[in-house]
Amino acid sequence: MTSSASTTQRINQATEQDPRWAAIVARDRAADGTFYEKPHLNAPPVGRG
Questions:
Q1: Which pLDDT tens digit goes with each residue over 8-26?
Q2: What are residue 17's phi and psi, to 5 degrees?
Q3: Residue 32's domain spans which residues?
Q4: Dihedral (C-alpha) 34, 37, 39, 44: value to the nearest 10 degrees?
């Protein structure tokens, strides 16, 4: 049986070695809670009309 401490260490190590983790750590925290969405190609112009 594996102890929960060694399981946690293995999970932490795997997370830190995942290249996606670096992107999470390096994110712009000022953008938290905001969304960016490209306008749909057929959407009417915003603020015109």
A1: 999 999 988 998 888 888 8
A2: -85, -10
A3: 1-49
A4: -40
DSSP letters, 1-49, are: ---HHHHHHHHHHHHHHSHHHHHHHTS-GGGTT----PPPTTSPPTT--
Q: Residue 20: which region, alpha, beta or left (left: phi > 0; alpha: psi -120 to 50)?
A: alpha
Count up the domains in the chain and report the number.
1
Rg from Cα positions in the chain: 21
Global model pTM greater than 0.70: no
